[in-house]
Amino acid sequence: MLSLPIAMLAEYLQLLMVFQVILLSTDRWAQKDVNPALFSRELMRNSSSFLKDEEVNGDPQILLMKAHAATSSIGSATVIIAVLEKTGTLKIASVGDCGLKVIRKGQVMFSIPPQEHYFDCPYQISSEAAGQTYQDALVCSVNLMDGDMIVSGSDGLFDNIFDQEIISIISESSGVDEAAKALAELARKHSVDVTFDSPYSMEARSRGFDVPWWKKVLGAKLIGGKMDDITVVVAQVKTVAVPEDEGGDIEEQKGNEQSIAISVSSAEQNEE
Amino acid sequence: MLSLPIAMLAEYLQLLMVFQVILLSTDRWAQKDVNPALFSRELMRNSSSFLKDEEVNGDPQILLMKAHAATSSIGSATVIIAVLEKTGTLKIASVGDCGLKVIRKGQVMFSIPPQEHYFDCPYQISSEAAGQTYQDALVCSVNLMDGDMIVSGSDGLFDNIFDQEIISIISESSGVDEAAKALAELARKHSVDVTFDSPYSMEARSRGFDVPWWKKVLGAKLIGGKMDDITVVVAQVKTVAVPEDEGGDIEEQKGNEQSIAISVSSAEQNEE
């Protein structure tokens, strides 16, 4: 088992949320005798410290730019930063193949596709000039509603678990803790199941990867889960009452007594 | 062939874009002796006339609310409204199973999933109280870049054509006209191909629909395209220079000489 192969942060700051799911490109950096955890940890610390920065002003792309510029460690990482505004808008900046889905009334109503150079080679924020920057981020936002569930995770989650499974687990779980743990556990189980036709193996086949022709003739096909580190963050959106002095600090919100808050839980499964 | 079964609008207003893809629930309304085109046409006319409304202020959800409230025809429709801001943010409100994808550097980097009550029964804006309203819309936005291609369409497009096919056609086409026509034509071809394993048939099987068991035993499965009306809108994003007096009308943009514009083309294929 690797030492701290995934680092993850879920932090409240008033009613803002930042969560980052950083998957380390472990192999490449380990070969260069670089501890691959250092870059992502520092990037996260910096993201956290810039969250209330005046220039950042709740913009996840500017936050990523500043955090990246302030990071001096060697390494690279895929990253999602999501900032929830009081009005219920979730602002997202994503570089790489982490994912984020919003589940509303039993269906995935918003989803971020992975960004990659080619199959299985994701965009990454890096200490090297060849890597991607905040300018390569997918920047988008979605208006949330009371009851929405946010499921974010590393590719180890979404490569091993189908949307319908995520929806089932979310609907059967009593809360975000239980949901995050159940999602991570099911993804881990699928990841080591060589007979499971996973989202990853289906995607691989659709890109032209498969078993050799002589196995195909015998009816075989490329299947199986994808062994990988798995990080899951589950958040639930709730409408909350806000005292007037807090609700009125943005001019447009004066007199608005409703605001959006979330409860967050996370779970991890490390590749063994 | 139905008379005007799909209505579609692509309109420039300065640097704003509105496009709406409205698919009519033809069968149900035809049975009630209601011309199903009337509702969507009026909804579109109203959307167009409210585009510069002060209260709307570029917000596609408010635009939908006002257009819907002003529509007196009987009927229902699925709808996407997308408004492109000068800064490059595409603001979207969607009710139902129309789709919108953004293609950047040869990959789908943003996509809107369909909203439906159950398989093949989409959310719809309606003249009846039982229908959905602007409050049920998926409201989101995405920051566009120079060169991005936007592909929007009715479910007749996305039920019959895979992302990889869309990407191929976009990359091979000389412009938005050619791309829109090629996408509509390929979707039409697939829609009448009973041997094509379409996105629609794959989705149907994943929801538990399939051929009877005795056909399954013989190796058969539910495949085929989905015969439907097909509307495609393709838009390409370009950075353009803006004269100072135009670029400076929003305070934050003062001194910004770059702005985002689009070229749009559309194509239709009616179910025969």
Descriptive account of the structure:
The structure is a homodimer of 272-residue chains. The first copy, chain A, has 272 residues and is α+β, with helices and mostly antiparallel strands. Chain A has a domain at 6-148 and 233-266: 4-Layer Sandwich (Phosphatase 2c, domain 1). The first copy, chain A, contains nine helices and 13 strands. Chain A has helices at 26-31, 37-50, 60-69, 155-158, 163-172, 176-191, 199-206, 213-217, 244-247, and strands spanning 6-13, 16-24, 76-84, 89-95, 99-104, 107-111, 116-118, 121-122, 125-126, 138-143, 149-153, 230-241, 258-269. In chain A, the strands form three sheets. In chain A, strands 1, 2, 3, 4, 9 and 10 form a six-stranded antiparallel beta sheet that branches. Chain A has a five-stranded antiparallel beta sheet with strand order 6-5-11-12-13. In chain A, strands 7-8 form a two-stranded antiparallel ribbon. In chain A, helix 2 (37-50) packs across helix 3 and helix 5 runs antiparallel to helix 6. The longest helix of chain A is centred in the last third of the chain and has 16 residues, at 176-191. The radius of gyration of chain A is 19 Å and the shape is globular. The relative contact order of chain A is 0.16. Residues 1-26 and 247-256 of chain A have low confidence and may be disordered.
